[in-house]
Amino acid sequence: MLKWKRVSSGTLTLNAEVLVDMLSGMSGKNRVIKKVSFTPTADKYLRVYRDAEQIVDFDSYTLNGEYPVLDMDLPLAEGQQCKIGFYNASGVTTAVQIMIAYEEAG
């Protein structure tokens, strides 16, 4: 079963990356991020990290506005942390809502 979680990116800074904690791996639970969704916005680049490893650097404006979903298959082991946010290449600093769909077994 897919579970959904939403966070705000927080205020974005011009020419800077802003990340927030999204999901953590937990003892006895196998979590896998399956989808990421957000409003496609010009000059915003989605960034996803698992611990210090960058997994995604994606131009958000290339997504279809009718179905703005990026499919993923990102497992999180116990103790691993997923951070998500945007690199902002424009002067618009408005926060963006980010949603993930994830599966959890265990």
Walk me through the structure.
The protein has 106 residues and is mainly β. The protein has one domain (2-105): Jelly Rolls (Sandwich). The chain contains no helices and eight strands. The strands form two sheets. Strands 1-8-3-6 form a four-stranded antiparallel beta sheet, with no helix packed on it. A four-stranded antiparallel beta sheet has the order 2-7-4-5, with no helix packed on it. It is globular. The mean pLDDT is 94.
List the helices and strands and how they pair.
Elements: E1 2-8, E2 16-24, E3 30-38, E4 44-50, E5 53-59, E6 69-76, E7 81-88, E8 97-105
Antiparallel strand pairs: 1-8, 2-7, 3-6, 3-8, 4-5, 4-7
Which class do the helix and strand fractions yield? mainly beta
In the CATH scheme, the class would be: Mainly Beta
Quick check: average pLDDT?
Answer: 94
- What is the helix tally? 0
Domain count, please report it.
Answer: 1
Beta-strand residue percentage: over 45%
- The first-to-last residue Cα distance is 12 Å
Number of E strands? 8
Shape: globular
CATH topology term: Jelly Rolls
Please tell me how large the radius of gyration is.
Answer: 14 Å
CATH architecture: Sandwich
Low-confidence stretches: none
Query: Main sheet: which strands, in order across?
Result: 1-8-3-6
Helix content: under 10%
Largest sheet descriptor: 4 strands, antiparallel
H and E string: EEEEEEEE
